[in-house]
Amino acid sequence: GCSDLFLGCELTASTKSYTFQVDKEDDSNHILALSVVCLTDGAKDECNVVEVIGRNHENQEIAVPVANLKLSCQPLLSLDNFKLQPPVTFRLAAGSGPVHLAGWHQIMQREDASFEEDDDLSEEEELAPIMPAKK
């Protein structure tokens, strides 16, 4: 099974970051697909840089700028469902917003993989978590 939940959040001068995380007890596969980042009413004509802070396969925190928005030249950026694995934090690294982020939270139930024994990880230990492909 798979379900999609719409996700929206706003970054402003007073709320510069938003963290999306899932319950650690939940063994479903969660994916966050970011579709649009846009400036909303009240934004000044300044650069607004939005960063995504996540973890790489070595569990080190990495921050990646995904959007640099400016009212006069690029008020909106379509990210075409940029996929992220929670937990992930969106941060307004520059500018005062407001910047609206919209996307989908996809939950893939693991029942399709019921033939895999969770407690027998001896053979699979060397498998790294799924990461975006290196360009």
TrEMBL record:
Q: What are the protein's UniProt keywords?
A: Acetylation, Chaperone, Methylation, Nucleus, Phosphoprotein
Q: Where is the composition biased (Acidic residues)?
A: 114-127
Principal subcellular localisation of the protein: nucleus
Do the record's keywords include Magnesium? no
Q: Name where it's found.
A: Nucleus, Nucleolus
Q: Does the keyword Phosphoprotein apply?
A: yes
Q: What region holds the Nucleoplasmin core domain?
A: 6-106
Region called Disordered, residue ranges: 112-135
One GO MF term, please? histone binding
In terms of InterPro entries, this protein maps to: Nucleoplasmin, Nucleoplasmin_core_dom, Nucleoplasmin_core_dom_sf
Which SUPFAM superfamilies does the annotation name?
Nucleoplasmin-like core domain
> Which Pfam families does the entry mention?
Nucleoplasmin
Q: Name one GO biological process term.
A: chromatin remodeling
Cellular component annotations (GO), alphabetically ordered: cytoplasm; nucleolus; nucleoplasm
- Annotated function: Plays a role in the regulation of diverse cellular processes such as ribosome biogenesis, chromatin remodeling or protein chaperoning. Modulates the histone chaperone function and the RNA-binding activity of nucleolar phosphoprotein B23/NPM. Efficiently mediates chromatin remodeling when included in a pentamer containing NPM3 and NPM.
- What's this protein's family per the entry? Belongs to the nucleoplasmin family.
Assembly and interactions? Interacts with NPM (via N-terminus). Forms a pentamer with NPM at a ratio 4:1 (NPM3/NPM). Two pentamers form a decamer.
Designated name of the protein:
Nucleoplasmin-3
Q: Which organism is it from?
A: Anhinga anhinga
